[in-house]
Design a protein that fits this description.
Strand order of the largest sheet of chain B: 2-1-8-7-6-5-4-3
Number of strands of chain A: 20
Number of helices of chain B: 7
Number of helices of chain A: 18
CATH superfamily of the largest domain in chain A: Sulfite Reductase Hemoprotein, domain 1
CATH class of the largest domain in chain A: Alpha Beta
Number of domains of chain A: 4
Helix content of chain A: 25-40%
Oligomer: heterodimer
Number of strands of chain B: 10
Structural class of chain B: alpha/beta
CATH topology of the largest domain in chain A: Sulfite Reductase Hemoprotein, domain 1
Radius of gyration of chain A: 23 Å
Number of domains of chain B: 1
CATH class of chain B: Alpha Beta
CATH architecture of the largest domain in chain A: 2-Layer Sandwich
Chain lengths: ~575, ~170
């Protein structure tokens, strides 16, 4: 370990102590000595596993589940390391370390994913233990970002700052991170297991398409608990999660989840990996039968040795305290003036800035979707700028959204213009959050061993077709999501426009779906027609958009128009296009 | 087969009875699940008896026999099949106090998982034992000093340490 690390050990504050201008308060969970020791031991264990793999003590078949449980995939060209960003929250210091890792062991960039993680596409196997050590230096890890175990748990990227929130979901999520880490019983499940948590009215965490979705709710007595959904998922057979219990009191949450996990571990299918997710168990067994099995198991559990502890929850929750906000007026004269004077900035504010629960503050979404760029990619320089910007303007905290963007959750309205200029210098001021070019795409055939078609060039082509931000704003909020195979990592099923890349007779073929929605109104998109060639995709999307613009009522979003008119009208359109000569 | 206990390869004092063998009156024997009732009936109350069961076994089937059994071996057909871990947890919860043995394809990297679910011993075929040598099992015991879960055995609980404030 004789090389330079960008961060020393021992500094446990969220902020760089060399910049004393910033308040030194934590706004996210900070490891204690136990958490740190746990992560270091996991790194040592993995280092030993790599050694045994190289010396033949572990066969590749034996090594695979253990490397996957440490986030290491074998991809098309190289290994890929997926680093966990629990509940998508990062400190500036952690973001800088991600930049350092990108420079030292990768090609100077990282890829932020739909599960709020970051991936490095070019590490060498022998370097991975060093990378894990560098992550541990800033209280990070790659534990359970892959494999048939409980994956890194995700949460609303606007946690704690959204105006519509019942409770910050992150203390619950951190609680789940700890409970699920190296779980003795649930590390060799039939298949991967994904949990998402939201504490808000509006679901930004897509909880209905997770194996378990948790929604923080209040019961009639004003007590906080969880609505538990089970069996959602995308992949080759998409399902919307079903409510298994309307209200689980907080004290029972981990026990209740353990009951679900035990039923799944025992009875989930293991004969066919494509039917092994809990969604298939729920579908084939029926939600009522699964509910009675889970309730029976839950009733049999001895809750006393169980790792729920109100004091421990309070300890965890205390880390997520509000930063020291200033008392500010609701509107900012400086902001209004800057908007009047600069049209580009004004557009950025209209599109990428969301209301904050505190007067005078705003939530800023930094788009990682420049026109024609690779969705979710950030260079090491961009990561450092984001870290600097968060310290200068946002209490040193950053979030990763499942739309593959970066969020600065607490920016003073007075500072928005200065922030925008800083971002713009590094190509980070694209004003397209939530618009048609804010595309979710998986890595596709450019990187992935499972992919059947490319995703990135399709995203780039659509982004270029709709390059005019003025036109994008006219079209309004619209999610385009692209997957390069039926495993649906690009969430195409829940895209208002979804694109699925397949392989037909040795050629890439793209299937378009319309009407998907990842929020609490969740719906799975429906197929528009036969597959398209790559070069036809932007034209067909263009036609869909033109049809929508012609048919929409005032303020109606694409998905609302689709719901009102019905899918048949959109299909007809596609058929008519086919008659005109384009091969849809 | 090799038997691992407390991180070391040890002599197995139990004998697996083939299904065609008659049930002896004495000696430490392990029978298959279909012969459990016959074995319980044939042997004296003090003769130690063990049973080997598939990982899909309904723990309710064993409940009435738990107090009469000295050993339960749960089969691991593949190391990626984690059903045995849940079955072990359920048998411990049902009050089984005897030796719980994971039998089959278990690798050293799973040792703490097995102990955490209530297993005492691991029994692996020779091809695995040649690569997963004693040293690996010994090391695996020390891989994690503490665990986030509260386990019947294995690593201590981080939560309890935090409670004690013993940082």
């Amino acid at each position: 370990m004789g090389f330079l690390r960008s961060c020393g050990r021992g500094d446990m504050t969220a902020h760089d102590p060399n910049l004393p201008a910033r308040p030194n308060a934590a706004t996210t969970y900070l490891y204690d000595a136990y958490d740190r020791a746990f992560v270091r031991e996991r790194v040592a264990e993995f280092r030993d596993q790599v050694q045994r793999r190289l010396s033949g003590g572990l066969t590749e078949d034996e090594f695979r589940p253990f490397r996957l449980m440490n986030g290491l995939y074998l991809q098309l060209h190289a290994y890929m390391l997926r680093v966990a960003i629990p509940y998508g929250t990062l400190t500036a210091r952690q973001m800088r370390q991600l930049a350092f890792i990108a420079d030292r062991w990768d090609k100077g960039y990282g890829h932020f994913t739909t599960r709020q993680n970051v991936q490095y596409n070019w590490p060498q196997l022998v370097d991975v233990p060093e990378i894990l050590d560098a992550l541990a230096d800033v209280d990070m890890h790659a534990i359970q970002t892959s494999g048939n175990c409980i994956r890194n748990v995700t949460a609303d990227q606007f946690a704690a700052v959204a105006a519509d929130e019942i409770e910050d979901p992150r203390p619950t999520t951190e609680f789940l991170r700890q409970w699920s880490s190296a779980h003795s019983e649930f590390s060799f499940l039939p298949r991967k297991f994904k949990i998402a948590v939201t504490g808000a009215e509006h679901d930004r965490a897509a909880i209905k398409v997770h194996d378990i979705g948790l929604r923080i709710v209040k019961n009639g007595q004003g007590e906080i608990g969880y609505e538990v959904l089970v069996g959602g998922g995308l992949g080759r057979s998409p399902f919307i999660g079903k409510t298994i219990r309307e209200f689980v009191p907080r004290a029972d949450l981990l026990a209740y989840l353990e009951a679900i996990m035990r039923v799944y571990n025992r009875f989930g299918r293991r004969d066919n990996k494509y039917k092994a997710r809990i969604k298939i168990l729920v579908h084939e067994t029926g939600i009522d039968e699964i509910r009675s099995q889970v309730e029976k198991e839950f009733a049999s559990m001895d809750l006393t040795p169980f790792s729920y502890d109100a004091q421990e929850f309070a300890r965890v929750a205390a880390f997520f305290a509000d930063p020291p906000y200033e008392s500010l007026p609701k509107t900012s004269a400086a902001l209004e003036q800057a908007k009047r004077e600069n049209a580009d900035f004004s557009n950025f504010v209209d599109v990428n800035v969301s209301p904050h629960k505190i007067d005078g503050y705003a939530i800023v979404t930094v788009s990682l979707k420049p026109i024609g760029g690779i969705p979710g990619d950030a260079t090491s320089d961009q990561m450092r700028v984001l870290a600097d910007a968060s310290e200068k303007f946002g209490f040193g905290e950053l979030r990763v959204s499942h739309e593959q963007n970066i969020v600065l959750p607490h920016v003073k309205k007075d500072d928005l213009f200065a922030l925008w200029r800083m971002l713009d210098d590094f190509g980070l001021a694209t004003a397209n959050a939530g618009l048609i070019s804010d595309i979710i795409a998986c890595p596709g055939l450019d990187y992935c061993a499972l992919a059947t078609a490319r995703s990135i060039p399709i995203a780039q082509a659509i982004s270029r077709r709709f390059a005019s931000l003025e036109r994008q704003r006219e079209i309004g909020k619209l999610g385009v999501k692209i997957s390069g195979c039926i495993n649906a990592c690009g969430h195409h099923h829940v895209g208002a426009i979804g694109i699925l890349g397949l392989e037909k007779k040795g050629e890439e073929s793209y299937q378009i779906t319309v009407g998907g929605d990842p929020t609490l109104k969740a719906s799975i998109g429906q197929r528009l027609g036969p597959g398209l060639r790559a070069e036809e995709v932007p034209d067909v999307i263009e036609h869909l958009i033109q049809f929508y613009l012609a048919e929409r009522l005032k303020d109606e979003s694409f998905i609302e128009t689709w719901r009102r008119l019905g899918h048949e009208r959109f299909k007809e359109l596609a058929r008519r296009e086919g008659e005109d000569g384009s091969d849809i | 087969m090799a038997l691992i206990s407390d991180g070391a390869f040890v002599e197995d004092s139990w004998r697996r009875l083939a299904d065609e063998e008659a049930i002896p009156k004495s000696g430490k024997i392990i029978v298959t699940l279909p012969r459990l009732d016959a074995a319980l009936a044939a042997r004296g109350p003090d003769a130690p008896l063990g049973v080997i069961a598939p990982n899909t076994t309904d723990p309710e089937l064993l409940r009435k026999s738990l107090s009469k059994l000295s050993l339960i071996a749960i089969q691991f057909p593949s190391f990626t099949d984690g059903r045995g871990f849940s079955l072990a947890s359920l048998l411990r919860r049902a009050g089984f106090k005897g030796e719980l043995r994971a039998s089959g394809r278990v690798v050293a990297d799973q040792y703490l998982h097995a102990l955490g679910c209530g297993f005492d011993t691991i029994e692996i075929p020779d091809d695995l034992a040649q690569r997963h040598v004693e040293e690996h099992w010994r090391n695996a015991l020390r891989a994690r000093s503490l665990s986030y879960q509260r386990c019947p055995r294995g690593a201590g609980s981080i939560l309890e340490q935090r409670r004690k404030g013993a940082l």
